[in-house]
């Protein structure tokens, strides 16, 4: 039970500790899907935008947000879905992009493909498929170290 | 006629639902793993878009129906998708050709819808457009790759095009629902999008070394719901049986 409402900055910090369910090295904040956090009387309103319209992780993410906020004592939570402006990979944080690369997932590039292999850093890379294991990723391969890797699609 | 806005939203959602279901039939049986994943992802996007369109349709209707109720508890005559999307998968080439023709129409239509006077329609279009642009990029590449591929792949792509060509016209056909949407600034005039579609089609077919069939005949009846092909009933029988047999079942 919280007697004083925690300020919005604290809420953002709490949400920054919630990992993406499919790529746990980045947080929901890194992913850029939390668009707004504000109190309306005693209800905490969190605005979330989906990455892809059919992404099955969206429901898990909403559940994780609620669980995290409840564990900090917030009792009344309203989750709002916002479609417009549509999510873009430009909203990934710098830290998120760095963590993706360290994890072996090439971060999105405006050129439409990874600049280099996240493992051996070679720029000799080729596309295997425009789609991958989750809606947000594509499959690429390094021609130098021959390892396949995920590329975070740029949208 | 029922509320034209409800009708329009059902058309949008029914197109993506029926095609999404069709494409999902490839899950686990596509020619190679990468294509299997790509088709499953495409289907997932389409089903996601369906949820957005049909939930809004239910909201507009105001009778307490949500996307699930509209997807699982309507029968053939209440589905208003174009005939193209209910056509059987055929071989991989036919599936890709069907997807390309739909994607090309879909991208043009959604682009126009982003300027809709209806805020929620514009927002769904904006969201969907990103996904659909990606789909079109892939199907364009694949149509070209297979058309201008081996003798066998070329032959299959040409026969897929010949078979599906008469289903293009319905996507650009205008009726009273469209007139109502145009007059309210909610949706574009479908006939106005044909020229851009045709030039894209010509460009891609040329690169794919495929020949555009002659003729202007168009099968119609899906969008209006008056005359679906026999295939839709079979799709619904498979898609809806669980909710029909065990209403409100969840897991």
UniProtKB/TrEMBL annotation, chain A:
Residues 116-153 form the PaaD zinc beta ribbon domain. Residues 9-71 form the MIP18 family-like domain. Pfam families: FeS_assembly_P, Zn_ribbon_PaaD. It comes from the Bacteria. NCBIfam families: PA_CoA_Oxy4. This is Phenylacetate-CoA oxygenase subunit PaaJ. The gene is paaJ.
């Amino acid at each position: 039970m919280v007697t004083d409402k925690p300020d919005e900055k604290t809420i953002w910090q709490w949400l920054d500790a919630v990992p993406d369910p499919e790529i746990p090295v980045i947080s929901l904040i890194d992913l850029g899907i939390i668009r707004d956090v504000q109190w309306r009387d005693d209800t905490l309103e969190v605005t979330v935008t989906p990455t892809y319209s059919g992404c099955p992780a969206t429901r898990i993410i909403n559940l994780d947000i609620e669980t995290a906020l409840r564990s900090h004592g917030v009792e009344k939570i309203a989750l709002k879905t916002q479609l417009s402006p549509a999510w873009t990979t430009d909203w990934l944080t710098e830290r998120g992009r760095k963590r993706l690369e360290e994890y072996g997932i090439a971060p999105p590039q405006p050129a439409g493909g990874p600049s280099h292999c996240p493992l051996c850093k070679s720029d000799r890379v080729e596309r295997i498929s425009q789609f991958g294991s989750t809606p947000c990723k594509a499959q690429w391969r390094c021609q130098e170290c021959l390892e396949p890797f995920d590329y975070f699609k740029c949208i | 006629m029922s509320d034209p806005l409800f009708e329009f939203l059902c058309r949008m959602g029914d197109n993506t639902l029926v095609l999404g279901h069709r494409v999902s039939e490839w899950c686990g049986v596509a020619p190679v793993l990468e294509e299997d994943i790509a088709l499953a992802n495409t289907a997932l996007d389409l089903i996601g878009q369906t949820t957005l369109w049909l939930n809004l349709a239910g909201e507009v209707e105001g009778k307490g129906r949500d996307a699930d109720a509209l997807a699982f508890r309507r029968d053939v005559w209440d589905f208003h998708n174009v005939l193209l999307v209910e056509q059987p998968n055929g071989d991989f080439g036919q599936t890709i050709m069907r997807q390309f023709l739909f994607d090309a129409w879909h991208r043009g239509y959604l682009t126009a819808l982003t300027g809709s006077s209806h805020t929620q329609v514009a927002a769904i279009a904006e969201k969907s457009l990103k996904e659909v642009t990606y789909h079109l990029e892939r199907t364009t590449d694949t149509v070209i790759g297979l058309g201008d591929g081996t003798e066998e792949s070329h032959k299959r792509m040409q026969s897929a095009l010949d078979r599906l060509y008469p289903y293009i016209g319905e996507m650009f056909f205008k009726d009273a629902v469209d007139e109502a949407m145009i007059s309210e600034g909610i949706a574009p005039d479908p006939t106005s999008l044909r020229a851009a579609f045709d030039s894209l089609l010509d460009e891609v077919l040329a690169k794919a070394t495929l020949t555009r069939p002659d003729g202007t005949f168009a099968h119609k009846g899906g969008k209006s719901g008056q005359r679906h092909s026999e295939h839709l009933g079979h799709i619904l029988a498979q898609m809806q049986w669980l909710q029909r047999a065990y209403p409100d079942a969840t897991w």
